[in-house]
Amino acid sequence: MFGRKKRDTTETAEAETQSALDTDAGEDLGADGAPDSVDVADGTADPDSGPWSIEDREGEREEIAQGRLDLGSVLLPLPAGGQLQVEMTQQGTPQAVHIVTQHGRITVAAFAAPKSPGQWREVATELADTLRRDNATVSVESGPFGREVVGLTAGGELRFIGVDGYRWMIRGVATGPTGSVGADSPLVQQARAVVAGTIVDRGSDPHPVRTPLPVTLPQALAQQLAAAQQQQQAAAQQQAAAQQQAAAQQQAAAQQQPSTEDPTAGGGRRGPSGSAMQQLG
Length: 281
Fold this sequence. Notes:
The longest helix is centred in the C-terminal third of the chain and has 38 residues, at 219-256. The strands form 4 sheets. The protein has an 8-stranded antiparallel sheet with strand order 2-7-8-9-13-12-11-10, with helices on both faces. Strand 11 (146-153) and strand 12 form a beta hairpin. The radius of gyration is 30 Å and the shape is globular. The protein is an alpha+beta fold and 281 residues long. The relative contact order is 0.17. The chain is built from 5 helices and 16 strands. The protein has one domain.
């Protein structure tokens, strides 16, 4: 599909804060039961067709990032009309950016890897084992980059796409409702196109193997996210204040209600000269 040369060589507990932001950047990007032992080749990044290392691209970063979302470690092409969901850690730093389309969700992340390829093969096997432990139906299929892991769960379907690069590995995930991650589905075609168009900036800092490469948000996106979070916080504060005011009003109304207690209860009926029994006495 992308002119890829195939070769025989071949994670999320967090408190989530998400904000959906419309974007029109980028361009249109347009089986179950297979045994794990199936002979599926795994691909490596190709400087001629992508995904690429940023060192393989010519020009300044601003030129290289043209038409892509620059997230620091990855520069992603965006399908037209897509939305972004930014996932934050408990410390308030960006952890992942998801691309939401009309067909489903696409997530691409880069990880540190050794110089030689082969990490995706290991990761794919572990992903398949993890999905099975979660009672998913798992198959391994061959895609334009090599092996792809497909998981069918009660809540939907996932397809994992991996590519090995020089000291990095890309993992793309297509997530959608049942029937949305078939090999020729629009969601999977978009996910493969996003992976193919991704540029990875591994950087020179040391990272343990399999460590996610850091994600940074462009200033404009970070400002939108901060504004959205402030609006959410303001709305939550207004709701809390309204609830407190309603509770105070209810309490005040209860205190102002006249007493319905019978003044003669427990003491007998009293007249001007005392109780009826006292008068009889």
